[in-house]
């Protein structure tokens, strides 16, 4: 089932952008521009996570967070245009699970949402994953091939990370560009294909007999790396 996310933010344009972006990442999204309405939606819709802005009319986000915590343990990610440490501390002390200052990259918000949900569900992704000679160390943001650290650019590591987290699923070029929107892609050239080609070279992955990244012609790419359990 899709995780339902409730956005409480008085910025209608941002709500629309996040609704589309998060929906493309498999979330069901509902939103409100007013805190009292948002609290009613929380009670009625039972979301799995709340994205809460601090600067709200009628009632600020801190008071909304305090009210949420009186009635629910739902994970809360707070957003604000103010990035002072005191604001972050107050939000976390009131029970927020994470805090992201504006402006932010949507993909960072998705990463934080996923991390908060994993913690809330007790389902923590292993910090290191191994795939038939390929090791991915998430805390260090490194990939190793047969024990040798690969010199991946930020774009290449993010593409690899995206493919691995969607292992076995075909991702088309539009999905890849949408997921990594923080990176400057040019939709009118072959940026995705070029990045995948360079990534494959560094992985020593033969496109004709791939071990990690398979091209689905006319569609996109899919990660097919085998874990140690798969190889038994």
Describe the 3D structure.
- The chain has helices spanning 12-24, 35-45, 61-71, 85-93, 106-121, 154-165, 173-179, 191-203, 228-231, and strands spanning 4-8, 28-32, 49-53, 76-80, 98-101, 128-131, 134-137, 142-145, 148-149, 171-172, 213-216, 220-223.
- Strand 11 and strand 12 form a beta hairpin.
- The longest helix is centred in the middle third of the chain and has 16 residues, at 106-121.
- The protein folds into two domains: 4-121, 3-Layer(aba) Sandwich (Rossmann fold); 128-231, Arc Repressor Mutant, subunit A (Orthogonal Bundle), CATH 1.10.10.
- By secondary structure, it is an alpha/beta fold.
- The strands form three sheets. A five-stranded parallel sheet has the order 2-1-3-4-5, with helices on both faces. Strands 6-7-8-9 form a four-stranded antiparallel sheet, with no helix packed on it.
Number of domains: 2
Main beta-sheet strand count, sense and barrel state? 5 strands, parallel
Helices and strands: which structural class?
A: alpha/beta
Strand content: 15-25%
What labels would you give this structure?
about 230 residues, alpha/beta, Rossmann fold, Arc Repressor Mutant, subunit A, 2 domains, about 20% strand
Write a short abstract of this structure.
The protein is 41% helix and 21% strand.
Blueprint (SSEs and pairs):
Layout: E1 4-8, H1 12-24, E2 28-32, H2 35-45, E3 49-53, H3 61-71, E4 76-80, H4 85-93, E5 98-101, H5 106-121, E6 128-131, E7 134-137, E8 142-145, E9 148-149, H6 154-165, E10 171-172, H7 173-179, H8 191-203, E11 213-216, E12 220-223, H9 228-231
Parallel strand pairs: 1-2, 1-3, 3-4, 4-5
Antiparallel strand pairs: 6-7, 7-8, 8-9, 10-12, 11-12
Helix pairs in contact: 2-3, 6-8
């Amino acid at each position: 089932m899709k995780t339902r996310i409730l956005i409480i933010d008085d910025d209608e344009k941002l709500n629309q952008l996040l609704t589309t972006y998060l929906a493309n990442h498999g979330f069901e999204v509902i939103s409100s521009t007013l805190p009292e309405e948002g609290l009613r939606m929380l009670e009625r819709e039972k979301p799995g996570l709340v994205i809460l802005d601090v600067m709200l009319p009628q009632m600020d986000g801190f008071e909304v967070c305090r009210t949420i915590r009186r009635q629910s343990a739902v994970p809360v990610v707070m957003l604000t245009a103010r990035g002072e440490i005191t604001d972050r501390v107050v939000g976390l002390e009131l029970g927020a699970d994470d805090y992201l200052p504006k402006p932010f990259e949507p993909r960072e918000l998705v990463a934080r949402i996923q991390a908060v949900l994993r913690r809330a569900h007790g389902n923590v992704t292993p910090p290191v994953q191994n795939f038939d000679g390929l090791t991915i160390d998430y805390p260090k943001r490194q990939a190793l091939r047969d024990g040798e650290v690969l010199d991946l650019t930020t774009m290449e590591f993010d593409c690899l990370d995206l493919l691995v987290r969607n292992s076995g699923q075909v991702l088309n070029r539009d999905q890849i560009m949408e997921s990594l929107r923080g990176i400057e892609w040019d939709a009118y050239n072959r940026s995705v294909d070029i990045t995948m080609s360079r990534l494959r070279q560094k992985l020593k992955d033969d496109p004709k007999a791939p071990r990690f990244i398979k091209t689905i012609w006319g569609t996109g790419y899919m990660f097919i790396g085998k874990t140690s359990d798969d190889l038994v």
